[in-house]
Write a structure and sequence with these properties.
With 449 residues, the chain is of the alpha+beta class. Helices cover 36% and strands 12% of the residues. It is built from 19 helices and 13 strands. It has helices at residues 2-11, 16-28, 43-51, 76-79, 87-92, 109-113, 115-119, 156-166, 195-199, 203-211, 220-223, 233-242, 278-284, 287-297, 299-308, 330-337, 344-350, 361-373, 405-420; strands spanning 82-83, 105-106, 124-129, 135-142, 150-152, 171-176, 183-189, 252-254, 257-260, 263-266, 274-276, 382-385, 388-389. A three-stranded antiparallel β-sheet has the order 5-12-13, with no helix packed on it. A two-stranded antiparallel sheet has the order 1-2. A two-stranded antiparallel sheet has the order 3-4. Helix 12 crosses helix 14 and helix 13 runs parallel beside helix 19 (405-420).
Length: 449
């Protein structure tokens, strides 16, 4: 074997990794299992080996298959990528397919989640051979099981549109069907070409990814943690109404700031909004109103309501690397600070979605779906495996959220005013009289001014 590999190296240069891999393969595998010496040969390399075939016993040039990603960067964070199995994979998986040269397994995204389903199962042939290894006859055959199709919920034109809109930014966008939890678009920018992993990532490419401050390998939609800002105010409003500490028609005066001790907590509108009720507070995104709402209801009830709407909890989505975020409580603060208690000033800050609170874009989309339906909708990407539907597609399949319909209706109407009424913070983003949407703007302060 060593002499043959030496002849191969004289014809086709082999890297240190390729030589080491060949050695491991010959030591680890049974003698009849082929070992890949080098992959992705050029036509010239292949021709040199074929011409010198008589001097290369046991060396064969074989044609393999490769994974094709026709949508490239557009769906890289959703689909993930495949790569050769590592030593740990071989130790953990008894599938004989993994020992074959050229095999690839899912490393990220849907490729990793449904790797076994997509891969299928190997077959087996039992042969009778003579003393020199020549096949005499076939004794038994067990056909392999081909991999199954996996159908996703992603709407490709919508995904492409979302990626185009955020292409110039370090950003994420999630579009979800509020009725059934199907994710129609899950975009994260910048992205990467998943096919690079199939042939092996060069050291230069890996260093370029690692040095990029915009983190192209990170799926910001599921793993990026951000302060929700004013998009959090609907949860605070519902917590206050459900606890009966603030009525929807009660007016609170905003002078531009709230004083607590020797600290001023400012509203984004310097001169203040005057007297506002809950609907107007959401429409104008009045910070002072929600400082007071948070003070009355307290951080623990805010956190509990947040969890019911999918913030700071595990949503159970298939994609690996999904983070749960954080909506703090008094107990969390004590544990993290070594005994320093929660301060009332902390509660005010969290009333406008800042402070320790961190959520993912996917969680905000889930929160919005639950606001719209009043049900515990959960996001998912897999629609069917092998033609079998994985989830129900009707709203009644999801249990109720457990919030009074009246309170949900008040918040929904306020979110409609945000977009469709003059003075609303998203009025410039309204659609048309024939197509109306509800929403909420949110901006966070990431450093002290």
């Amino acid at each position: 074997i060593g002499a043959t590999l030496g002849t191969v190296r004289a014809l086709v240069p082999l890297s240190d990794n390729e030589r080491a891999r060949s050695g491991r393969g010959t030591r680890r595998n049974r003698r009849f299992v082929p070992v890949a010496v080098r992959e992705f040969l050029s036509w010239d390399d292949m021709a040199r080996i074929e011409v010198n075939a008589p001097d290369l016993p046991g060396i064969l040039v074989d044609r393999g298959q490769t994974r094709l990603y026709p949508h490239g960067e557009e769906l890289a964070h959703v689909l993930g990528y495949v790569a050769p199995p590592a030593e740990a994979d071989l130790a953990a998986d008894d599938d004989p397919l993994l020992t074959l040269p050229g095999i690839r397994i899912g490393r990220a995204g849907i490729e990793r989640v449904h790797d076994r389903v997509l891969r299928g199962r190997a077959g087996a042939i039992q042969l009778e051979v003579n003393a020199v290894g020549r096949v005499i006859r076939e004794l038994a055959r067990q056909e392999g099981t081909p991999g199954q199709d996996v159908t996703l919920t992603i709407d490709e034109p919508l995904q492409r549109f979302a990626m185009q809109r955020i292409a110039s930014d370090s950003a994420a966008a999630v579009l979800m069907d509020a009725r059934n939890g199907e994710i129609l678009a899950l975009a994260s920018s910048p992205s990467f070409d998943p096919s690079v992993f199939n042939s092996g990532v060069s050291q230069a490419q890996w260093q370029a990814w690692m040095a990029n401050r915009r983190k192209p390998l990170n799926n910001k939609a599921i793993s990026g943690l951000y302060a929700p800002g004013s998009t959090f105010k609907m949860v605070v409003a519902l917590a206050a109404m459900e606890a009966n500490v603030l009525g929807p028609n009660e007016r609170i005066t905003c002078t531009g700031y709230v004083e607590l001790g020797d600290t001023r907590f400012h509203c984004w509108k310097k001169e203040g909004h005057g007297g506002v009720d809950l609907r107007q507070a959401l429409k104008f995104s009045c910070d002072c109103y929600f400082y007071e709402a948070a003070r009355r209801v307290g951080i623990d009830r805010i956190s509990s309501m947040s969890n019911r709407f999918g913030l700071g909890v595990d949503l159970g989505i298939e994609l690996p690397g999904t983070r749960t975020g954080l909506v703090p409580t008094r107990a969390w603060r004590l544990a993290q600070s070594g005994g320093i208690p929660w301060q009332q000033g902390d509660t005010l800050v969290h009333g406008i979605g800042q402070g320790f609170t961190q959520v993912t874009p996917l969680q905000l989309a889930t929160m919005t779906a639950r606001l719209a339906t009043g049900r515990q909708v959960k996001p998912h990407l897999t629609r069917a495996v092998g033609g079998t539907i994985q989830r129900g597609d009707r709203p009644e399949h999801w249990p109720m959220i457990g919030v009074a319909d009246r309170n949900l209706r008040i918040v929904r109407e306020a979110m409609s005013a945000v977009v469709n009424e003059q003075g609303g913070t998203a009025y410039a983003s309204r659609l048309s009289d024939r197509q109306m949407m509800a929403g909420k703007t949110g901006t966070t302060q990431v450093r002290r001014i």
